[in-house]
Amino acid sequence: MSTSNEQLVTDFCNTLTEANVNKVVSFLADDVFYHNIPWAPVTGHSGVHEVLDPFINAGLLQKMEIRHTASSGDVVTNERMETWVKSDMQVLLPVLGIFTIAGGKITKWCDY
Fold it and tell me: Where are the alpha helices (DSSP H) in the chain?
């Protein structure tokens, strides 16, 4: 990682596998904008909780493989492969994430 913003995003993404949404939102600004396509966008910690609680706290995200990271100024992009598991079903989900950082926190997070 060449920048502190890239490291912040990497640490954040790796935290998603820890089944602890409170720890996840600690990386986010209070008024964060989060849009996980194709869901409707949400704002703030409560919006992120509403969307992620059923998935993250259940421990469904088992593995996060970050394949590429690039940044320009306060914007970080990463390509990753997420492994989601429920019962005997496993889904490998390719994701492209774009993050905006300000003041050491993620202020905007969009996953495609």
Answer: 4-15, 21-25, 44-56
Q: What are phi and psi of 56, to 5 degrees?
A: -75, -50
Cα-Cα-Cα-Cα torsion 59, 6, 79, 89, nearest 10 degrees, comes to -10
Contact (CB, 8 A) for 65 and 95: no
Tell me if the bond preceding 41 is cis, omega within 30° of 0.
no
Instruction: Render pLDDT for 2-37 as a digit per residue (tens, 0 to 9).
Output: 589 999 999 999 999 998 999 999 999 999 999 999
Token pair, residue 107, equals 């202020």
How would you class 106 by CB atoms within 10 Å of its CB: exposed for 0-12, middle for 13-18, buried for 19 or more? buried
Can you give the pTM of this predicted structure? 0.93
Tell me the two tokens of residue 59. 């421990």
